[in-house]
Write a structure and sequence with these properties.
9 helices; 13% helix; 12 strands; alpha+beta
Amino acid sequence: MSSHREAPEISKDPVADSTDLYAFVSPDEPDTVTIIANYVPLEGPDGGPNFYEFGNDVLYTINIDNDNDGDADIVYEFRFDTDVTNPDTFLYNTGPIQSLTDANWNRRQTYSVTRVDTEHGSSRRTVLGTALACPPCNIGPLSTPSYNALAGAAVHSLANDVTVFAGQRADGFYVDLGAIFDLGILRPFEQDHATFGLQNTGLGQMAAGINSLKGANVHSIAIRVPMSGLSGNGSGWRGSRHSSSPNSVIGVWTAAYRQKVRVRDDSGAHFCTGPYVQVSRLGNPLVNEVLIPMGKKDYWNSQAPGSDSQFASFYSNPQLSQLLPVLYPGVFPNLAAYNAGPPAPNRADLVAILLTGIPPGLITGFQNFTGTTQADMLRLNMAIPPSTSPANTGLLGNDIAGFPNGRRLSDDVVTIELQCLAGAVLKLVDPSFTPDGAATAISEGLTTDATDLSARGTESYLSSFPYLGVPHSGFLVPAS
């Protein structure tokens, strides 16, 4: 969660496992959009001697749809190379790493960035940068004594005002994994979980949530691009930015690809060949994790967003929404009645949030509608400026700059989506439905209120690019 180890096959391939995707108007440069795609879930900071890195044999992409068809019009491709400077030592570094070219650093990565523009069936490729240095992992005070300087040197300015970074960061996502995957324990209703009965375990009340990712790192690909370079209306859009315009909305997703064939020789070396196939993707958080059934998770990862109508039934009648009144008898009576029908449940609210964007007229002053093509993309209305008082519950907290309008680092997407699954916004498309009071009371217990950005142990976010916090040190692993 939001997409850490979300499907059987990709859980065995962490370097290609897209864990989180963020897209937001850059708070310090509001004429730009920042997109962050995270990979390699649940990194232990002290995971030496072979510390975490990107995959040389993985093609990473960030994809933008700006004409509402669910297909990528702009793709940023990232390819990585690894250089071992001293193959005769087992050490990642043989002394303090003082710069990105320090001879003490034994295993370093560089990458290239290519932009691919597709229009009318033809593609144009533009190489934006090559041999761009990643920073090392944050080993500890002896190996990486000035880590902020190393990370700062790995922020690269490219042509067309594009800024990129690729390397280790603190995982900014926060979630109580132990609760939600223990047969759906929801705070603050854990004592009402009567199916198996927490009240019979002797554990007592557990109001405070546990951030399962406290102290975990991740590998991030971050890119900041001028809005004029993303809109379907091109540079002319900058002077006519209106939140009501379809040209203001982009759809974003990340994907990872591997070549079809991997061959090993007797020495343990391998090479890859053949066409690239998609093995991982992520648009909206939690979708493959929670909505897609086990038998289709790997298949979902292989599909393009433009074909997501085949999965629409899992959005319009999700299993977790059916289970909530069963797991918590009497807590969600209105949802229980709605689920029982007639008619059969048709969660048009969830379809709008996750598959088409929210059309004009449902929420005052807001839309991120991309048309009738059902596609799981993170939709961002670029004409909505950053909030001066952000609420981590996004639209549910009356903050139209937050999820599901893109996704900011601090947005509590687990709480938002659980509340929506419980029926908190169903009345927007079905005025006859009255949300249960419990629907808006669901919380992970990780923040004190909608404006609390502390997230119980999550590393502090930065005010400037790449915005994710400094990765946790292997020597100074946070206490549990």
